[in-house]
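Chapter summary example: a protein plus adenosine-5'-diphosphate.
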Amino acid sequence: MKRPFSITRLSAMLLKEFNHMRRDRTTMGMMVVIPLMQLILFGFAINTDPKALPTAIYSADTSEYTRDFTAALVNTGYFHIVKETRSQEHLDEMLTRGQVQFAIFIPENFTRRLIKGERPQILVEADATDPVATGSAISALNAIKPRVMTRDLKGITMANPPAPPAFDVVVHRRYNPENITQYNIVPGLMGVVLTMTLVMITGLAVTRERERGTMENLLAMPVRPMEVMLGKILPYVLVGYIQATIILMAAAFLFRVPVEGSLTMLSGATILFMIANLGVGFTFSTVAQNQLQAVQMTFFFFLPSVLLSGFMFPFRGMPVWAQAIGEILPLTHFLRIARGILLKGSHFADIQADLLALVAFVIVSTGIAMARYRQTLD
Amino acid sequence: MTAATASAARADDPLAIDVHGLVKSFDGKVVVDDFSLAIPEGKIFGFLGPNGSGKTTTLRMLCGLLTPDSGEGTCLGLDLRDEAPLIKRQTGYMTQKFSLYEDLTIKENLDFVARLYEMDRRTERVEESLKHLGLYARRDQQTGTLSGGWKQRLALAACTLHEPRLLLLDEPTAGVDPNARREFWDEIHALAETGITVLVSTHYMDEAERCHEIVYLAYGKLLAKGTIANIIDNTALYTWRANGKNADRLASKLRGCDGVEMAVAFGADLHVSGTDEAALEAAIAPYRHEEGIEWFRHKPTLEDVFIHLTAGSKDNFS
Ligand SMILES: Nc1ncnc2c1ncn2[C@@H]1O[C@H](COP(=O)(O)OP(=O)(O)O)[C@@H](O)[C@H]1O
Ligand SMILES: [Mg+2]
């Protein structure tokens, strides 16, 4: 009679929640539209393969070879030379001010050392604050090296064709030591969208009952805390799953983001991550008096998640205290897992530690939610 | 009115509610103070009192939604504190504010309740209930679109679906038209005939008269309980009634006179009451022979008594 858990009662809660969802077209529409909208907004950044990036060049040496290098550079389509300067300071200044994306320096004696076979260097400095923008250009840069070399030095090196290029292009990425690649944004986006929508939606689902007075009726009936919590969490796992699928599909088909690792493993990790966030939402709902407060608390959780998880800024570039906070947040671990699986093809052993961190978070957050949940109106 | 059943506390009657000294305060303000009540099984008790007197709070304590600060007792023989989940199973509580899901259909709401109570023959019971309500044809309509009267009837059906032994109804007929109220009360009496105990709060005097006994609460204190006749007899209140042309205009003149506790106009009638018989007569003497007004000695009505009790307790309160 006094069973702590009943499948029938849980099914009552689940069914009811699904019925609410069916009727609440606006919220459900938002749940689908938000990830799509975000993805398309970010998608331009992911997808654009920006060409004709403003470039300044300081050629301290002028010869057939340097002219040829410059021409090859322009031919890639990625570089648009806006300025040929004659001073190192001016070159630096233009990069610092963001007037150009690339600053290229060809040193004195380049031609002489090239002919002597001393492997001179060309220095390319890239403003990598926007790594998405510079990534393809840098790859293109690397590709032109052999071509320049083979064409220009053909006459000289006919006797013994050299395998290594006769000069080096040294690339300095400035302002973004971690050099996040363009694809990082997608797994990150998945985590961010799930964090925001899921924490908010459970918070709202419970506080709405309190606001409308239906909570009083619910509490007067023999439903147990665990059943209420699962009833408010499980339906939204499904919603989150749909969101995650939308993002992944769009990422793979629209933007050709690679999927290196196991999607099954990613699904498992995603479900865990969703439960972690739903647990947070449920905990908030035990504190918040109304829906407005639930939304405010969601942002209170959302902001550090976005800022300190490594989504916005490179995790290793953050101060120690910020990293410590970041380690607590589920998004941090989910980002590592998702990036690992999608981009690096990580195996279970690689993501084990982060999975464990998520499990711990789920246990703590749902534990707090259960402890705080009141079966009375006191 | 059903024949006033004698005393509530006949020793051999099983008691559906038996609580002593319940106290509840919010933020240091005592809202229910030393509340004791015994209700025998199968009786309809009316719960009256001005707004904010603690009726809802008391009902919530009885069904386990609020924990009393002190006091103890039993509902349906189960301990109020330790066995609240078991009390919930056999109690139907109808909240003051409509608290079914307005975005769900009528049928979905009843089905939800039936599942939560893990009832057998769920589909049939829900269907029976819908037919009994007369809402079978509208079962797929969203609950929020129902009129006030229908909402109340549906809420009653929802809280009786699991065949409770105790019903706690919190102002179930507030804002409902007289016809719907009468039908609602017919339903309550039908339920009581099957042995269900009912404690129902109300502001309507005609509804009070349809209860077996009355409990009157004001400012957290229980001021009177018993049958209507008992309550009237036990209150030493004397009332004169004036009837005739402009009799109601005298109310303002009499109010505040020595011996007059209250002077209330009811249409063209005037009720003047006080606890001191002689002083009251002295107070009305100047108006006794006024042209066109007849004076009668009058048995106080329940309303007179309540106004008197409330006024008295307000003085104590402040
Ligand atoms: N949860 C609560 N927190 C603070 N005060 C409350 C709460 N519930 C009721 N009260 C106060 O207790 C008093 C009695 O309220 P209530 O029991 O609703 O009276 P009634 O139902 O007789 O109108 C009111 O003054 C009300 O403001
Ligand atoms: Mg009330």
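Key point: The pocket of magnesium ion (ligand 2) is lined by residues B 55-56, 96, 170 (CB under 6 Å).
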